[in-house]
Amino acid sequence: MNACLRDLAREDDDYNERTRTWMKQVREVAFDSEDCIDTFWCHIGCQYDKKVLGWFLRTVHPLKILKVRHSLAIEIQSLKTRAQKVSERKTTLAVTVYHSPLVQRIQCRAFIAASQNYDLRALLKSVLKQLLQKPYRGPTNVQEGATEDPLRDIETWDIPELIGQCRSYLVDKRSNLEEVAGNYFDEFISRSIITPTSIDSSGKVRSCRVHDIMLEVITLKSVQENFISLVGNHQHDTIGHDKIRRLSIQGVHAGGNKELFPDRNLSHVRSLNILGCMEKPINIKISHLRLIRVLDLEGCHWLSNQDLKGICKLFLLRYLSLRSTNISELPKLVGNLKELTALDVRNTYVREFPPAITQLRSLKHLLAGCYKYYTRTHRVKRPSGKVAVMVPVGLKNMSALQRIAHINISSSFRALHELGELTRLTKLCVTNRREIEKWTPFGASLSKLSNSLRHLSVGHMEKQDHGLEFLIDLSHPPLFLEKLYFWGRVSALPQWISSLSNLVDLSLRENHLQGELLKILGRLPSLLSLKLYVGSYAGTELCFEKNLFPRLKQLMVDNLANLDDLSFQGGAPDLERLTLAFFRVPVKGISGIENLPKLKEVEFFSSIVDSVVEGVIAAARVHPNRPRVYRDDLPMEAF
Question: Do residues 425 and 532 share a domain?
Answer without folding.
Answer: no
